[in-house]
Amino acid sequence: MSAASIALSVHDSAQQQTFEIRPLAGAVGAEIIGLDLSLPVNDEAFARIHRAHLDHHVLVFRNQHITPEQQVAFSRRFGVLQVHVLKQFLLAGHPEILIVSNIVENGQNIGLGDAGKFWHSDLSYKELPSLGSMLHAQELPREGGDTLFADMHKAWDDLPEALRKAVEGRSAAHSYTARYSETKFESNWRPTLTAEQLAQVQEVIHPIVRTHPENGRKALFVSEGFTTRIIGLPEDESRQILTELYAHSVLEHNIYRHQWQPRDLVFWDNRSLIHLATGCPSHLRRKLYRTTIQGDAPF
Ligand code: SIN
């Protein structure tokens, strides 16, 4: 019996949990009610969750008392996990978990404090960008700290004709370091990247309009966080078009605002959405654990 079929039969034999998938009021998203991720999730339940993820793009699992091991194990069922380049902020003993936090302990940042400050799709600066990310709330501020998600399928579907024509068939460059230098200059959240880290984040080129490999829908695949230029266009024209694409993508009706509740686990599709952390007052503590699942090369 192969490892995959042993894993399948283990999940198959797990007791069925009863849960509900309830669409949220915003542009995208659904709440998963009644599922406990600290208990086994059998194959039938997993298939429902997978389908809901493709249909709703962001899933909110409420009140999850899971360990880092359980978050990693659940994330792995969707694919290979990516280890973030900022190894300073990986959870000790769990390199698949990036600590997203503004907390400073003994004069040291315990996590990436300004993660998500600009709209982005996780790891779009890699040849194989992320399929999806899971963020599990550990400590939440009493004010602020929301995460916004914008639907990039809808952004493409609604794109004015002139902009469609301007970008169809074109590609754009994505870079981790472009904003990094700017953000580093403005705050002290970002450590200087070593030569080894820089080698892991070389600029990549991706299509501006991608086809989702699982739901078959087209989506805009650019963001102010990581996209730097449109290939083959003069700098000013490229900048102008990107600015218009960014503004169009994040129109109010295209957004779901997630207001975190204790122990929420939020799982979004980076092939369908871009997201933004709105931030919170700096004296309030915020800490979340992120796992990031590798996706395919965009086409
Ligand atoms: C991220 O971009 O992964 C972090 C989002 C957040 O902190 O709300």
Write a structural description.
With 299 residues, the protein is an alpha+beta fold. It has one domain: Double-stranded beta-helix. The protein is 26% helix and 27% strand. It is built from eight helices and 18 strands. The strands form five sheets. It has an eight-stranded mixed sheet, with helices on one face. The protein has a three-stranded antiparallel sheet with strand order 15-9-17. Strand 4 (90-91) and strand 5 form a beta hairpin. The model is unreliable at 1-9 (pLDDT under 50). Succinic acid is lined by residues 100, 115-116, 147, 275, 277, 288, 290.
Please name the defining characteristics of this protein:
about 300 residues, Double-stranded beta-helix, eight-stranded mixed beta sheet, about 25% strand, globular
Q: CATH class, anyone?
A: Alpha Beta
Number of domains: 1
What is the terminal separation in angstroms?
Answer: 35 Å
Helix percent reads 25-40%
Please outline the major beta sheet.
8 strands, mixed
Strand order of the largest sheet: 1-2-3-16-8-18-5-4
Spatial shape: globular
Q: Total helix count?
A: 8
* CATH architecture title: 4-Layer Sandwich
**What is the number of E strands?**
18
Which oligomerization state do the chains in this entry correspond to? Answer: single chain
pLDDT averaged residue by residue: 93
Work out the radius of gyration. Answer: 19 Å
